[in-house]
Amino acid sequence: MVPLIERRIRWAGLLIVCGLVIQMITLIFVHPLAFMAFLLISCPLVAIGILLFLYSIVSHDHSKSESAQLGKSATAPETRA
Amino acid sequence: MELNGNTAAVILILFTAIVVVLGLLIAVRPELTRARGGKILAFVGLCVLPALAVWAGGNEHLERSTSTRFCLSCHVMADFGKSLYLDDKSYIPAAHFQNNLVPRDHACFTCHTDYTMFGDVHAKWRGLHHVYVQYLGKIPKPEDIKLYTPFNNRECLHCHDGMRTYEEASPHHKTPQQLTQMATNQLSCMSSDCHDIVHEVGNWGDATFWTPKQETK
């Protein structure tokens, strides 16, 4: 199962990629609608992506993941045995 | 494609493409972030570089929004663009445009922004209102388009203040206090029967138009 932090990072990455792709398209045209698309779609998508990424970092409980890793390594020899 | 000659935009698109590839890599393989190097890569690829790309994109879009081509991209503004080529120097915008008194690439913005601390922000806000009217509101006829407020002398004096031709011109010395009155906007440059012939869309009659030599080649 994919850990929560990695799922959040995946979503953050996808949002940022979507926003930047739209930005690339808008940069091709010199038109008010391109400017509006950049302002109303691209910027919010990238901003949400960055915020989600930062949130995923700060909300990640390192002690849990470390203990989980320790638990895994502690049980590993037993399972082998 | 409207990128001809715009090197900055091409570079920005390439940079954005690189950031997209990096973002996609992290999105597809989030397990990379388990390692220390992956964490740094994720921070740069999902935080620093996207923020930089959007900041640069915003700058580029803001710069473009001051261009004459941008202003004239709505059909209703076409006649205003045409008025810049009127072959009659009594038309103030045409005289300024044709004699390079304003940069031709930014002709509209040069005269119609406010030269104040937040003038550009106000200009952009008015621009957003124009976009709303263009796509969601009732588009007026070109000849019905008027300024929101009377043209402020400040915008003229941004360039003309201190100019010898402006300060020594005899029409500007009809009274001793005339220059002061113009500087304080008490006497309008535009609406005091002095320089009141502007775009005059719809009232051109049988006017002729100037064709720049570079365009005839």
Structural commentary:
By secondary structure, chain A is mainly α. Chain A has 3 helices and no strands. Chain A has helices spanning 4-26, 32-58, 62-80. In chain A, α1 (4-26) runs antiparallel to α2 (32-58). The longest helix of chain A is centred in the middle third of the chain and has 27 residues, at 32-58. The relative contact order of chain A is 0.15. Chain B is an all-alpha fold. Chain B has helices spanning 7-28, 36-64, 68-71, 78-82, 92-98, 107-112, 119-136, 153-160, 164-168, 178-183, 213-216. The model of chain B has no long low-confidence stretch (mean pLDDT 90). Classes of the chains: A mainly alpha (81), B mainly alpha (217).
Strand content of chain A: under 5%
Shape, per Cα inertia axes of chain A? elongated
Task: Return the average pLDDT of chain B rounded to an integer.
Answer: 90
Structural class of chain A: mainly alpha
Tell me, briefly, the overall form of chain B.
Answer: elongated
Question: What is the rounded distance between the termini of chain B?
Answer: 23 Å
Distance between the termini of chain A: 25 Å
**Mean of residue pLDDT of chain A?**
84
Rg of chain A to the nearest angstrom? 20 Å
Protein structure class of chain B? mainly alpha
Summarize the structure.
Chain A is mostly helical and 81 residues long. Chain A contains 3 helices and no strands.
What keywords describe this structure?
heterodimer, A: 85% helix, B: 0% strand
Which SSEs are present, and which pair or pack?
The complex is a heterodimer of chains A (81) and B (217).
Chain A: H1 4-26, H2 32-58, H3 62-80
Chain B: H1 7-28, H2 36-64, H3 68-71, H4 78-82, H5 92-98, H6 107-112, H7 119-136, H8 153-160, H9 164-168, H10 178-183, H11 213-216
Helix pairs in contact in B: 1-2
